[in-house]
């Protein structure tokens, strides 16, 4: 992670790995999701907190931008809200 941009990587396979992503406040950030299993309802990831929803094709990395202006804990989940992850901004 450089001082100018942060990128977290999350593997999507029967859940999110890691489930918790920690980012530094005020530093531009992205999260790259890669779905490696076709199990379950994990073909979509969305976040009301960050206002995104994106499809996750199998074995294809998809990157979303997250706003790090505010410290706190923010959620993301699968399309059916059965699997959850969290972004912690410090």
From TrEMBL:
Transmembrane segments: none annotated. Residues 3-89 form the EfeO-type cupredoxin-like domain. It comes from the Bacteria. It holds the Pfam family Cupredoxin_1. Coiled coil: none annotated. This is EfeO-type cupredoxin-like domain-containing protein. It comes from Secundilactobacillus similis DSM 23365 = JCM 2765. The lineage of its organism: Bacteria, Bacillati, Bacillota, Bacilli, Lactobacillales.
């Amino acid at each position: 992670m450089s001082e100018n941009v942060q990128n977290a990587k999350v593997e999507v396979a029967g859940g999110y790995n890691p489930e918790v992503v920690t980012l530094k406040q005020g530093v531009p950030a992205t999260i790259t999701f890669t779905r490696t299993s076709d199990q379950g309802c994990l073909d979509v990831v969305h976040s009301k907190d960050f206002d995104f929803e994106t499809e996750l094709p199998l074995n294809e990395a998809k990157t979303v931008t997250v706003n790090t202006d505010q410290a706190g804990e923010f959620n993301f989940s699968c399309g059916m809200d059965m699997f959850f992850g969290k972004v912690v901004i410090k």
